[in-house]
Amino acid sequence: MTQPTVESVWDYPRPPRVEPSSELVEVELGGQVIARTTTSWRVLETSHPPTYYLPADAFGPGVLRATSGSSWCEWKGAASYFDLVSGDVVAARAGWTYERPTAGFEVITGAVAVMAAQLDRCTVDGEVVLPQPGGFYGGWITSRVVGPFKGGPGTAGW
Predict the structure, then answer these.
(1) Residue 86 lies in a domain
(2) Is 71 in contact with 53 (CB distance < 8 Å)?
(3) Which end of the chain is more exposed for a tag (fewer CB within 10 A), N or C?
(4) What are phi and psi of 122, to 5 degrees?
(5) Domain range for 85
(6) What's the total number of domains in the chain?
(7) In this structure, is residue 152 part of a structural domain?
(8) How many angstroms separate the CA atoms of 40 and 42, rounded?
(9) What pTM does this model have?
(10) Are 57 and 76 spatial neighbours (Cβ–Cβ below 8 Å)?
(11) Rounded distance, CA 126 to CA 156, Å?
(12) pLDDT of residue 157
């Protein structure tokens, strides 16, 4: 049996890169799987655990509800947001997308990333992810990646 490769987030590049992933990614909210795919993209940036972007069609009908507001990423451009909905449960602004990402990130156009901390759970190949600390970044921590990770107290200047 081969051991999985461990990645240090300090080996990820800046500016970040995006790479395809065939890992099974599942997102749960309100006791239901609201997204499932084996086609996603990982954005890898120095000091950050990977952020997974899932195709919009990986989400069930009615799960993605566009909401107001936007933010700006120095690398990917303008992001717009979604509430994630599962029955009566709503995770406000827990998903985001880039409709017109900057050069180099075109592959994630319309794909959706989610804040694991706002959901019941997110898994990668069956492993429950830990959310990136701090509540601002959307990285997913698995046993495959090691830090320290940006986002926690005292890391704003990294």
Answers:
(1) yes
(2) no
(3) N
(4) -130, 140
(5) 24-145
(6) 1
(7) no
(8) 7
(9) 0.95
(10) no
(11) 31
(12) 81
CA-to-CA dists, residue 50 to 62, 87, 157, angstroms: 26, 29, 20
Q: What length is written for the chain?
A: 158
Question: Which are the contacts of 143, defined by CB distance < 8 A and separation ≥ 6?
Answer: 4, 6, 127
Tell me if 107 sits within 8 A of 18, measured CB to CB: yes
Q: In what order do the strands lie in the sheet with 25-29?
A: 32-37, 25-29, 121-124, 127-128
Which tokens in the block code for residue 5?
Answer: 């490769």
The pLDDT of residue 35 is 98
pLDDT at 156: 83
In a domain, 158, yes or no: no
Q: Where are the beta strands (DSSP E) in the chain?
A: 7-8, 17-21, 25-29, 32-37, 40-44, 51-53, 64-73, 77-86, 89-97, 112-114, 121-124, 127-128, 130-131, 140-141, 145-146
- CATH for 53: 2.170.150.40
**Digits of tens for pLDDT over the chain (158 positions)?**
666 689 999 999 999 999 999 999 999 999 999 999 999 999 999 999 999 999 999 999 999 999 998 999 999 999 999 999 999 999 999 999 999 999 999 999 999 999 999 999 999 999 999 999 998 899 999 999 999 999 988 888 88
The strand pair at 17-21 and 25-29 is best described as unpaired
Per-residue tokens: 122:
């997110």
